[in-house]
Amino acid sequence: MEPSDTRKLPLISVVVPVFREATEIRGFLAAVRNQLKESGAGYELVVVDDGSPDESWAAITAEAQSDPNLRALRLSRNFGKESALCAGLEVARGDAVIVMDADGQHPPTLIPELLRQWQLSGADIVEAVKVRRGRESISSKLGALLFYELLNKLSGFQFKGASDFKLMNRKAVNAWLQMPERNVFFRGMTVWMGFKTVQVPFEVGPRSAGQSAWSAIKRLKLALVGITAFSSFPLHFVTLAGGIFLIVSVVLGVQTVYLKLAGRAVSGFATVILLELVIGSLLMISLGVIGEYLARIYEEVKCRPRYVVMESINPDDRR
Prior knowledge:
- This protein has eleven helices and eight strands.
- By secondary structure, the protein is α/β, with parallel strands linked by helices.
- The protein has two domains: 228 residues, Alpha-Beta Complex (Spore Coat Polysaccharide Biosynthesis Protein SpsA, Chain A); 69 residues.
- It has an eight-stranded mixed β-sheet with strand order 7-5-6-4-1-2-3-8, sandwiched between helices.
- Strand 2, helix 3 and strand 3 form a beta-alpha-beta unit.
- Helix 6 runs parallel beside helix 9 and helix 10 packs antiparallel against helix 11.
- The longest helix has 33 residues.
- The N terminus is likely disordered.
């Protein structure tokens, strides 16, 4: 990178949420550091330990002793990846911030391309977009496809191939920090802001070690947060379904009265049971949809912090 490029990139922050990555975090940080050094830009590494039950914090602490550019936070418990991202973004000081996972599926070798595209395009956000999702079960791939198709249709935004691996300039980071909601869906919030974005394709790499901490329940919870945070269509659907059933009920009521007055009333036990089952199911689903939105509101009005920091490492304190 030429000296003029270095002046354009005075400081790059790399925010890395960590959960159960004790055996691989040091190698990952070394790879990220090498890519940043080759770019010629100043940098800082912001590592957030999301309440890992293993020795991740010990590995991060050991790494910090030899790297004055490493800053770290240790959350008091596992608040979730989205909250860990919030913690990292709130303390990052860079003129551009790169967010990436520590499990090896976001390749550090893509960092120079993110920086290059940022310089060439002048975009506020450079997003790494998945062209292949890597090794996943069929159910996971189908679930992700269904979720993003629903989210695309319901929200009106395009999320195909979206990932948390992206570069944001300071203007975009500051705008993101102005959104105080507790139900965080990071990749959706960055799309919602509407800043100029360019995309860089990448293939999801294999995990460096261990198994993903994203269980089916956690994926489902994130999907519900994403849909309810970016679309009110499910609520409108409940109203629409109620209107349709009202019309059908009026038609059936008029028909029943007519047949009764004409003396041609027939028994319709099976029909009644079927209608009760359908209406009952619709009512339960409707209550569930409303309950999801109420749960989001309940979590927001409590105004609890997104996370709690138990320990931190700040290189400025050692100087």
